[in-house]
Amino acid sequence: MPLRQRWKEIVTYRWLYLFMLPGLIYFLVFKYVPLWGLLMAFKNYQPYIGLMESDWVGFDHFTRFFTMPDFWMLFKNTLILGLYNIVIFFPITIVLALLLNEARKEVFKRFVQTLVYVPHFLSWVVIVGISYVLLSTTDGIVNHMIVSASGGQAVEFLTSTDWFRPLIVLQMIWKDAGWGTIIFLAALAGVNLQLYEAARMDGANRFQLLWHITLPSIRSIIVILFILRLGSFLDLGFEQIFLMLNPINREVGEVFDTYVYRVGLVQGQFSYSTAVGLFKSVVGLILVVIANQIAKWFGEEGIY
């Protein structure tokens, strides 16, 4: 396209480009400019002499990371929680969206939507604080009910290595499952109603409508969101897990995010922690590329 014609098009659609400007600035400042800092992973960064003047060490930080004794413990914990996120949390958002879509009473539907959306706006500090109030062995309501009902001993929910991962998943579901239904509900609103009417005339019941019309209609959205979620497979979030960690459950709860905080910010090993973060990003990129290719093999559009 000639330059003059391109400028004419920009002037014609200037308001649309103006609306895009804040988003472009956000991604430029917070996503692309920080990529320059990835050089730190290949250097022995010293703050007082700057990034460019620091000594180049190549892949030394990665070698140290992969050969340290705790690597496989961190990898195992992160992998298990990541699988829980994909296998349990992600399908629950779809099921919840389908249930909300099937609600016929509009008042009831709006009430339930509001109820499941509210926890998303609470910080993880509040969510974990409520968990402590409910599950404490001394004053926790849940343990009081257990002791009163069965006469047994209180359960060490907060310090048990067996309960740590289920609690993390339950907190994720409680906080974000409702919020995760928004895109699915928007996709469900676009399903052609004539398909349902035709299927009902052929004698289809509600389950058959769900299986043969609803799910195929939103399959592309499910695939795209699944691929995007794989990109953050090892990025479990720092705040929730950090607040739930204690010396007793650290063996099953320490993940890459909390490890980066401990060695990067607390101990000041900036280059080493950058290498760990870069490893997570590369794994996420590889998973996205593989999943996107598999989706295309099965006839889906993918994300690119």
From TrEMBL:
Keywords: Membrane, Transmembrane, Transmembrane helix, Transport. The keyword Ribonucleoprotein does not apply. The keyword Nuclease does not apply. InterPro entries: MetI-like (IPR000515), MetI-like_sf (IPR035906). The chain crosses the membrane at residues 12-33, 79-100, 112-135, 177-197, 209-228, 270-291. It is found in: Cell membrane; Membrane. It holds the Pfam family BPD_transp_1. SUPFAM superfamilies: MetI-like. It is a multi-pass membrane protein. Its main location: membrane. Residues 75-291 form the ABC transmembrane type-1 domain. Belongs to the binding-protein-dependent transport system permease family. PANTHER family: POLYGALACTURONAN_RHAMNOGALACTURONAN TRANSPORT SYSTEM PERMEASE PROTEIN YTEP (PTHR43496:SF1), PROTEIN LPLB (PTHR43496). This is ABC transporter permease.
